[in-house]
Amino acid sequence: MKKNYLKIIKRTKKNINHISLGDFFTSYIATTINEDETKTYEVKIVRDLSVQREGVWDLNKKMDFVAQVINGNGDNNMLHYVDLEKCRFKAENEGCFNYMKHLAKFINAGADLSHIDGGNRTDALIETITNQIPLKAGFYDYGTDDNDNRVYYTLETDTFWDNLDDDFKNTICTQGMLVTVIYEDLTQEERATLFKTLNDGIDLNSAEKRNAEVSIICEGNRELNEKYKDLFVEVNALTLKKADRWLFCEYVSKLMQTSNTYLKDGKTWHWASSTQIDKDYKSGSEADLEYGESRNFFEKEFIPYIKLIKIALPEKAQLYCPSAYVDFYLLLTYMKKNKIELYEKNKNTKINFLTLFNNKIIALFGDVTTDFYTKTTKGVPRYEKYAGITTKSMDTCITARMELLVNDFVTMLLDDKTLVKIEKRTSTCKAEKANLFLKQKGKAGSTDDVINGFTLNKEAEIDHIKPLRKGGSDDPKNKKLETKKYNRTKSAKDLEIL
């Protein structure tokens, strides 16, 4: 007889529970009654956005779902959760420290479980019991009791939980049922795979699949999504469709990757692909390790201009076309790489710079004679007008657009001193400080404050008499020693921060 072998397949450890609404509420919501008789709630289930599709149900959808649960249909769809402590413990034992820290963050905030699937459904139930949303008006029928008496309740109007009849609340808690699946030993990869499997009925886009990573860049871009997505939609940098479902995060990553490529070699405009972003999102990737600097540039240099469009310019203001926002970000990248800045940085000069840039884009669109090479198809070169190359993210199109801006726009603004190329600074060495200290006889150049030699390195700074951005040189004759306090105060006054 032939002996057969079966390969052992590891099964995910999980607990499947049929649980009443009452037990669900008492298990995962801690209620404290304060001295003024108000209530404070501590919810033990948290949204982990790394395994959540973006988008929150509106009020009507939440109320409809809760009404279905109360009517006895809550066990139709399982709610899938991660047991945070057990999965954290496994991650620690296996050396998956990023995943361990990711889960520990929720535990430290007081959570026991996090969602894998069912976030909106869970939120709807919790918001009902904590009086954030009302129970929907309607007829709630529970059949007959042991004495064949019909049990039903009628709500004439939408009613908050605390205002319901106690008998109705007790019936809801005992008759309403849920099915929860709690996973105890998921690795990061298994969790991501499970998330994709549970959403198999709805196609996940690449951004949603990528969002399951626990890298610095992944979490950081979700924060940017929450802060700025609506702003970018309002100024027409992106449509809502192209910003939703974590696509804004992909947009930001492509901006950053394209910018970083140019900052490194000073010549290549290469629009990042989705495949490249997939690699960037991996924990420990080059983009992940450099994310802090990339995010700082995005928020400190780019976002102030986007806010100006929304706040300081006329109502409904926007750049002439969506691609102009990409080009403006890359233009700022070019300026950073080549040490070019506004002659003066304040709200008015930034608005003027935006206006000049937008007018340049309009002028380029108005050129109906110039053809730009896009690609070669079957040996035949293809050309399009400027409007055509703004709708394509091919490297040839990005490069052509940037060459126009650098050669025409930047050159013009350098000539009329709207922009200025900053002369390279020499290092602030101890010898230079000592020389100025002796030359100024131990006093600050502008305030006559006494500079103590013991704190010279820490409390004094070298300042340029005529700022570099205004054409001043880095020559010793254009320098003086100031107290750090005075120098920082002066710099803050010079720049009007948006």
Describe the structure concisely for a colleague.
This protein has helices at residues 21-28, 59-73, 84-93, 97-108, 119-129, 166-175, 188-198, 206-210, 216-234, 240-243, 247-265, 274-280, 286-289, 291-311, 323-337, 347-366, 386-389, 395-415, 430-439, 456-459, 484-494, and strands spanning 14-20, 29-33, 39-43, 45-46, 79-83, 113-117, 138-144, 150-155, 177-183, 340-342, 372-377, 380-384, 419-421, 460-464, 479-483. With 498 residues, the chain is α+β, with helices and mostly antiparallel strands.
Write up this protein.
The protein has about 500 residues and is of the alpha+beta class. The protein folds into three domains: about 15-205, no CATH class; about 210-420, no CATH class; about 430-495, no CATH class. The protein contains 21 helices and 15 strands. The chain has helices at about 20-30, 60-75, 85-95, 95-110, 120-130, 165-175, 190-200, 205-210, 215-235, 240-245, 245-265, 275-280, 285-290, 290-310, 325-335, 345-365, 385-390, 395-415, 430-440, 455-460, 485-495, and strands spanning about 15-20, 30-35, 40-45, 45, 80-85, 115, 140-145, 150-155, 175-185, 340, 370-375, 380-385, 420, 460-465, 480-485. The strands form six sheets. A five-stranded mixed beta sheet has the order 1-9-5-6-4. Strands 2-3 form a two-stranded antiparallel ribbon. A hairpin with a 5-residue loop joins strand 7 and strand 8 (about 150-155). Mean pLDDT is about 90; it is low at about 495-498.
The largest sheet, given as strand count, sense and whether it forms a barrel, is: 5 strands, mixed
Radius of gyration: 30 Å
Please give the count of helices. 21
Number of domains: 3
Helicity range of the residues?
Answer: 40-55%
